[in-house]
Fold this sequence. Notes:
69% of the residues lie in helices and 0% in strands. The protein is built from twelve helices and no strands. The longest helix has 26 residues, at 275-300.
Amino acid sequence: EISKLLPIQMASARGFDPVGGTMPMPVVSDFAFPKAPPTVLERMEAGANSALMMSSGVIRPLAKLFLLSTFLEDAVRMATQWDTQVNHINTEWGSEEYVGTVFVWCNLIFQVLPSFMILINGVIKIPTSIIIASLATLVVVVLAQSVAYHVLWNVEFFFRNLAVIGALCLVGAEAVDPEPTKGGLLDRDVSAQEDDAEVADVLRLSGRLLVVLMFVTLTKFDTVARIITELIGMLLLALLVIGYKTRLSAVTLFVLLMIENLTLNDFFMHDPDDHMHDYKKFNFFQALTVTGGLMMLVALGPGAVSLDGEDKKNL
C-alpha cells in the first residue's frame, strides 16, 4: 500500500492534485535555454578587447606621442628652417623682420613646452590645470598658424585642423577623468565630485565628432577598391559618432588611416628639396595626430553620451 501512495505524495509535493487534476507550477530549473553562440562582430570585439587589455600599458603613452607628433615635427621644422619661416611670414604679411622672428619663436616655444608637459604627465604627476592650459595653448597655435599662413578658410586645412583639435579634446578628457568608471553627463543625480566626469564626457563627445573630419579630407572614389574601402570607412565613422562598438570601430579606423597616411602622404619618397616633401610631411604628421586621438579613444571608451555608454572598462 505504501508503494501505491508514494507516486501520489510526490505529485502532490510538486503541486499536482491527483483528484482535482491541478497542473504543477513550472520552476526555473525545469527550463534550460541554450546560449546563443557569439556573432562574428562579438567575436571580433572580444578579440580586439583582449589584445588591447594586454597592451594597455603602452596605449596611452603611444597615443600621446602620436597625438603630439605634428607639433613636435613643426617645432623641429621651425628650428631647422628658421630663415625660410621668418621670410615667409614677413612676405605673407608685408611686415618688418622682427614680426616673423617673434612669430617663429612663439611657435617654437608654445609647441615644445606644452607637448613636453603632456608627454611627461603620468611619469610625473602634473596638475590638471597645467595640462588643460597646455592643451589650450596648442589649440591657439593651430588657429594662429591657420591665420598666419592664410589657410584658415581652406576647407581641407580647416577640417584637418578641427580634427587635430578633436584629438586634443581626447587628451583633455584623459587629463580631467583618467579612470572613467561612473558618473557622467547623463546621470540624473550628479554630485559635485562627478563634475569632472561631465566635462570628460563633453570632451570625449567633441573628440569623437571632430576626429572624423580627417577622414573626410582623405575620401576619394577613384577606383572600385577605393570605393569599397571608403564605404566601409563611412560605416565605421557613423558607428564612432554614435558611440556604438566604439573600440572596435576606432581600432579598425586606426589601421585604415595608417595605411592611407603611408600611401597618400609618402613624403619619404620625395627629395627634401621637392616642395611636395614638406607638403606631404605636414599632412602625414597631422594624420598621425588623429591616429593618436583614436588610440586615446580606445583607451578611454566613448563616454556616457554614446550607445556603448560606460559599460566598457577603460584601459
